[in-house]
Amino acid sequence: MEIPSDILTIDEMVDELCQLK
């Protein structure tokens, strides 16, 4: 599966949010 760069940036944001929890 080819993942657009936009999704990569969103994935990074989600990862940071998970760390805050």
TrEMBL record:
This is Uncharacterized protein. It comes from Clostridium botulinum CFSAN001627.
